[in-house]
TrEMBL record:
Record carries keyword Endoplasmic reticulum: no
GO terms assigned for molecular function: metallopeptidase activity
Superkingdom of origin: Bacteria
Protein name per its UniProtKB record: Zinc metalloprotease
UniProt keyword annotations, A-Z: Hydrolase, Membrane, Metalloprotease, Protease, Transmembrane, Transmembrane helix
Length: 207
């Protein structure tokens, strides 16, 4: 689980930052389009306004993670709590597109770069795809700090305040959960990748 080389860690950090930036921007943009613009400072694909350090650590260790909660209030959003699925899909769909693009580029990268460079590019694309899929799967869990949990918390003011107070505790629990279910996550990522993308032999090298 923890036999990661330095190059693997660097590639995981880079891949995680891409995912974090895209997901955070997509959530903030969805909220603004639906009437809640309070997360205006999060309307950027730069990951540094979205990154949660424990969430980034989870990416490095377990292959999934989470972002800082995007401020939103579903009383201001058109559709109210019924808009939760729409905002969630708007936030996670771009991450799935990242996975699809990475998988699509894998065969091309394996033959388009030099003998010394191709393995690194293929490894990075594989890591990007695997982390993207793992991120989507875990952020469907309806508990903080995962995205669906954060969106449900945003539906009520008392829940939002409690989530702010206990964010660190939720994050620690999520790390422990990641340690316990990491083998399941890896298997689930393979299953999803095989279902949607077919041959994942190149992707499997990025475990």
């Amino acid at each position: 689980m923890f036999d990661l080389t330095l190059s693997m860690l660097v590639m995981r950090v880079l891949a995680a930052l891409i995912i974090i930036g895209v997901h955070g921007f997509a959530l903030a943009a969805a909220a603004k389009l639906l009437g809640d613009g309070q997360a205006g400072d999060r309307l950027s694909v730069s990951p540094f306004g979205h990154v949660d350090l424990l969430g980034l650590l989870a990416f490095l260790l377990f292959g999934f993670g989470w972002i800082l909660p995007v401020p939103m209030n579903f009383k201001r959003i058109r559709g109210g709590v019924w808009a939760v699925p729409l905002v969630l899909v708007a936030g996670l769909a771009p991450v799935l597109l990242i996975a699809a693009l990475a998988v699509y580029l894998l065969p091309w990268a394996s033959v388009s770069f030099s003998y010394s460079t191709a393995p690194m590019v293929v490894a990075f694309l594989g890591i990007l795809a695997r982390l993207s899929i793992g991120f989507v799967l875990l952020n469907l869990l309806p508990v903080p700090p995962f995205s669906l949990g954060q969106l449900l918390v945003a539906c009520r003011e008392d829940w939002r305040e409690s989530a702010k107070r206990f964010h660190f505790a939720f994050a620690i629990i999520a790390l422990l959960l990641g340690y316990a279910v990491q083998p399941w996550i890896a298997g689930a990522v393979d299953a999803v990748a095989h279902t949607f993308f077919g041959d994942i032999s190149l992707l499997s090298r990025a475990r």
